[in-house]
Amino acid sequence: MSTNETNCIFCKIAKGEIPSYKVYEDENFLAFLDINPHGVGHVQVIPKEHYRWVWDLPSGGGQGSIGAYFEVVRKVALAQQKAFNTEMIRSQIFGDEVPHAHIWVWPNDASGDPKDFDTNANKIRAALE
């Protein structure tokens, strides 16, 4: 494990060392509400394994691949559409503010309190079922 992984806040969230409002989790990926949301239901989707950039994930369609990663992002976006009764979902690939691959996904025009984390997480989780 590199120093970057040891000090990475997203790695700590993925390992359960830091609490989060999880909306989706499987063996390779985790989606959780952003603690400083840009809007209602703003989610971070991350690989559990530490990759510096999204483009560092392995290619192909297997488990843990970039293809599988984008399928999870798609699931979350479709759940947000349903949960918040909105059509437009924004997404943005980031990596400079936290040195761990992550994609922001959030409804463009959803109403509600962005900081009502319990309610927003429950809505997304219910829409994923």
UniProtKB/TrEMBL annotation:
The active site is at H102 (tele-amp-histidine intermediate). One of its GO terms (molecular function) is catalytic activity. Residues 9-116 form the HIT domain. GO terms for biological process: nucleotide metabolic process. InterPro entries: Histidine_triad_HIT, HIT-like, HIT-like_sf. SUPFAM superfamilies: HIT-like. It holds the Pfam family HIT. Signal peptide: none annotated. This is HIT domain-containing protein. It comes from Candidatus Zambryskibacteria bacterium RIFCSPHIGHO2_01_FULL_46_25.
